[in-house]
Amino acid sequence: MRETMANITLPTVRHPLEAVHSQFEAWRKRRPCRGRIPEALWQAAVGLCEERSIFEVSRTLRLNYNDLKDRVQTSRDRGVDIGEGPGFVKLGLGTPTMASGCVVEMEAPNGSKMRMSFSAVLRDLDPVDFGRAFWRQGK
Question: Structure pTM?
Answer without folding.
Answer: 0.48
